[in-house]
Specification:
Helices cover 39% and strands 20% of the residues. With 583 residues, it is an alpha/beta fold. The protein has four domains: 8-62, no CATH class; 104-175, Elongation Factor Tu (Ef-tu), domain 3 (Beta Barrel); 178-197 and 221-449, P-loop containing nucleotide triphosphate hydrolases (Rossmann fold); 456-582, Lysin, CATH 1.20.150.20. The protein has an eight-stranded mixed sheet with strand order 12-16-15-17-18-14-19-20, sandwiched between helices. Strands 5-6-9-8-7-10 form a six-stranded antiparallel barrel. A hairpin with a 4-residue loop joins strand 8 and strand 9 (151-155). Helix 13 (460-474) packs across helix 14 (482-497). The protein is elongated and about 110 Å long. Bound molecules: adenosine-5'-triphosphate and magnesium ion. Magnesium ion (MG) is lined by residues 255-256, 339.
Length: 583
C-alpha cells in the first residue's frame, strides 16, 4: 500500500528560501499542526523581503502588503470606536504601539456563487454559525448555513464588488452591533449605523445580535404596569413590564398606531421601534411625529426598510433587541416594538429559499417558529440582583382577512403572553382603536395593574361581552323590553368611551374618571353622539377644578370607596350643568 502523501503547504516569496529557513518553516508547521507538510515554493516577485505561507485555509501573511492591511484594519477600528476625534493622535499612537508585526495568521475561503445578498463559500472549515466573515471588497457577512463542504453567508452590504473566486476571511467575531447611550434619539440601520443626519454615534460596547435569553432564576415575575395610555388596553388587557403582548390584525387596522401611542406615553421607559420591511417614507414620517411630540429623546428607531435585502431585514429585530438588552442590563426598563414580524418571516423565507433550504408549511422554513421564540424569549423582567431592568415586547403581526389560524399568527400567539386583536369591521364602523374585546387577552398583566385601575375597570370586560351577545340576538327583533333596551344603551355607551384618537394617551387619573363615570351609568341620559364631547369636557373640568382628585389617583395608584363616590358625585353635578348648556 502506498504511503499517504503529506499535505502541501505553499510558500510564496520572491526568493527561494535556503535550507536553514526551510527547516525553520517546517519546524513551525510541525509545531502548529502536529503533522508533516510538504513545502511547495512558489515565486512571487511582488512580495519583496516578505513571504506568505498558505496551509489549507490558513494564511500567514508576512508580506509588506499583508502587514499594511493589518495596520489599516487596526486604524479603521480606532476610527470606528472614537467618533469624537478630540484625541485621535494619541489613539493612533497607542494603536501603532500595539500593532503586532508578528506573522499574521488568518483563514481564507473562496466565493463559489454570489447573488441576492447571499454567498456560498468554499473553505473556512472552522467558521462557526453566526460568525462574521469579511470579503476582499471589505463587505461583511454572517455565516448562516453550515454544510459539509460549503458555507452559506448572508451579506450585510453591497454585493456588487463580490465576485466568484473572491477571497473571504474569518474574523472570529460573532455578529453584533455597537451599543451605547448615544443611540437615544437616533435612527439607525440594522447594523447600528446612523441613517439620520445626526452624524456618527458614539458607542461604548459591542453586543452580539443573538444572545441567550435570561434563565429562570435570573428573572422575576411581571408586577409593574407598562401603561399604554390607551383606555381599552390598560383597562381590560393590561401590559406589565417584561411582558410580550402581540398586536395582531389585518392591514390598516391601527396596529402601528397602538404601538406608537404606547411609546408616546412613556416617560421613564426607553423605547426601541424596529421597522421591518416598511416603506422608508412611512418610517421617516413616524420619526418626524415622534420628534415633534418630544418622544424621540427616549427612543431609538431601527429601520430595515422594504428596499433593504432580506438578510438585513432578517437581522433587524435581533439588532434592536441587542440594543434593548444593553439598557436592560443597566437596570432600565425598555419597550421594544417589532413592526412587523410577518414581514420578518417573509424576509427569512426569502433568505432560506436562497440558501436552498427546503420549504415547509406556507413555504416558510421549518425553523421559523424557533426563530421567533428565540427572539421573544429575550424579553424579561430581571431579578433585583441583576438590576431589575426589563424588556417589554410588542410584536406586531399582520393577518389576512382576520385569519389568526395561519402559520405565523398561530406561532406568535403561542409564544406571547397575550394578544390585542384588531378587527377591520370595528375599524370601519368608527370604533377606533378597533380592539376586539372577545378575542383579545393579556395573560400576565393583571398582576401588574394598579389597584385604582383594577377597581375602576371592574366588570367592564364582562359587561361588554354581555352587550355583544345581546346585540347579536336583538338584531332581528323590533320590540325590545325596557330593561333590554337599557342594557343595549349601556353597552353602546361603553363602546363610545373606548374610542380614542391617536396621539392622545390618557394619564391614569383620566382613565379612572372615565371608567367610574361610565360604570356608574351616568352616561345613560346622554345621546350616543354626545358621549365623547361630554367626556372631553368632563376631563377638562376635573383637571382644572379638582386637581386634588387627579393627583391622589396618580400618586397613590389606589381608588378608595370615598374617592370613587367623590368622582361619581362630581361627575353627576357636572353632567347636569353640561346638559343645561347643551340645550
Ligand atoms: N384610534 C384611531 N383613531 C383614528 N384613526 C386611527 C386610529 N388608529 C389608527 N388610525 C388611522 O388609521 C390608519 C391606519 O393606522 P396604522 O398605520 O396604525 O394601521 P396599521 O394596521 O399599522 O397599518 P399597516 O397594515 O399599513 O401597517 C392611519 O391613518 C391612522 O391614523
Ligand atoms: Mg403598520
Amino acid at each position: 500500500m502506498a504511503e499517504k502523501k503529506a499535505p502541501r503547504a505553499y510558500l510564496y516569496a520572491a526568493k527561494k528560501p535556503d535550507t536553514q529557513q526551510e527547516e525553520r518553516l517546517k519546524e513551525f508547521l510541525g509545531r502548529r499542526y502536529a503533522r508533516e507538510y510538504e513545502l511547495v515554493y512558489k515565486q512571487d516577485e511582488d512580495l519583496g523581503n516578505g513571504f506568505k505561507l498558505v496551509v489549507g485555509d490558513d494564511v500567514y501573511d508576512r508580506s509588506k502588503q499583508g502587514r499594511f492591511a493589518q495596520l489599516k484594519e487596526i486604524l479603521e477600528e480606532v476610527v470606528r470606536r472614537d467618533d469624537d476625534s478630540s484625541d485621535v493622535i494619541s489613539l493612533f499612537k497607542s494603536a501603532i504601539d500595539s500593532w503586532n508585526v508578528e506573522t499574521l495568521s488568518r483563514e481564507e475561503g473562496e466565493v463559489l456563487t454570489i447573488g441576492d445578498g447571499i454567498a456560498i463559500i468554499r473553505g473556512l472549515d472552522k467558521a462557526v454559525y453566526g460568525e462574521i466573515v469579511v470579503f476582499e471588497s471589505g463587505v461583511k457577512g454572517m455565516v448562516q448555513d453550515i454544510r459539509r463542504d460549503s458555507l452559506g453567508v448572508i451579506l450585510f452590504g453591497d454585493d456588487t464588488d463580490v465576485r466568484e473566486g473572491s477571497r473571504v476571511r474569518r474574523t472570529g467575531k460573532t455578529a453584533g452591533i455597537p451599543v451605547g447611550d448615544g443611540y437615544l434619539g437616533r435612527v439607525v440601520n440594522a447594523l447600528g449605523e446612523a441613517i439620520d443626519d445626526g452624524g456618527p454615534i458614539q458607542s461604548v460596547d459591542y453586543r452580539a445580535v443573538e444572545s441567550p435569553a435570561p434563565g429562570i432564576v435570573e428573572r422575576q415575575a411581571v408586577n409593574t404596569p407598562m401603561y399604554t395610555g390607551i383606555l381599552s388596553i390598560d383597562s381590560m388587557f393590561p401590559i406589565g413590564r417584561g411582558q410580550r403582548e402581540l398586536i395582531i390584525g389585518d392591514r390598516q387596522t391601527g396596529k402601528t398606531s397602538i404601538a406608537i401611542d404606547a411609546i408616546l406615553n412613556q416617560e421613564d421607559v426607553i423605547c426601541i421601534y424596529v421597522a421591518i420591511g416598511q416603506k422608508a417614507s412611512s418610517v421617516s414620517r413616524l420619526v418626524e411625529m415622534l420628534r415633534k411630540k418630544g418622544a424621540m429623546k427616549h427612543t431609538v428607531v431601527v429601520s430595515a426598510s422594504a428596499s433593504e435585502t432580506a438578510p438585513i431585514q432578517y437581522i433587524a429585530p435581533y439588532a434592536g433587541t441587542a440594543l434593548a438588552e444593553y439598557f436592560m442590563y443597566q437596570g432600565k426598563d425598555v419597550l421594544i416594538v417589532y413592526d412587523d414580524l410577518s414581514k420578518h418571516a417573509v424576509a427569512y423565507r426569502a433568505l432560506s429559499l436562497l440558501l436552498e433550504r427546503s420549504p415547509g408549511r406556507e413555504a416558510y422554513p421549518g425553523d421559523v417558529f424557533y426563530l421567533h421564540s428565540r427572539l421573544l424569549e429575550r424579553s424579561a423582567r430581571l431579578n433585583d440582583e441583576l438590576g431589575g431592568g426589563s424588556i417589554t415586547a410588542l410584536p406586531i403581526v399582520e393577518t389576512q382577512e382576520g385569519d389568526v389560524s395561519a402559520y405565523i399568527p398561530t406561532n406568535i400567539i403561542s409564544i406571547t403572553d397575550g394578544q390585542i386583536f384588531l378587527e377591520s369591521s370595528l375599524f370601519f364602523a368608527g370604533q377606533r382603536p378597533a380592539v376586539n374585546v372577545g378575542l383579545s387577552v393579556s395573560r400576565v398583566g393583571g398582576a401588574a395593574q394598579t389597584k385604582a385601575m383594577k377597581a375602576a375597570a371592574g366588570s367592564l370586560r364582562l359587561d361588554l361581552a354581555q352587550y355583544r351577545e345581546m346585540e347579536v340576538f336583538t338584531q332581528f327583533s323590533s320590540d325590545l323590553d325596557e330593561s333590554t333596551k337599557k342594557q343595549l344603551k349601556y353597552g353602546q355607551g361603553l363602546m363610545q368611551i373606548l374610542r380614542q384618537p391617536t396621539g392622545k394617551p390618557y394619564p391614569l387619573h383620566s382613565m379612572v374618571i372615565i371608567l367610574v363615570t361610565a360604570t356608574a351609568r351616568l352616561l345613560m341620559d346622554l345621546e350616543l353622539k354626545q358621549i365623547r364631547p361630554f367626556i372631553d369636557d368632563l376631563l377638562k373640568h376635573f383637571e382644572s377644578m379638582h386637581t386634588g382628585i387627579c393627583n391622589e389617583i396618580d400618586k397613590s395608584g389606589k381608588l378608595s370607596d370615598e374617592l370613587r363616590e367623590e368622582i361619581r358625585s362630581t361627575a353627576g353635578e357636572f353632567l347636569k350643568t353640561w346638559q343645561m348648556q347643551e340645550r
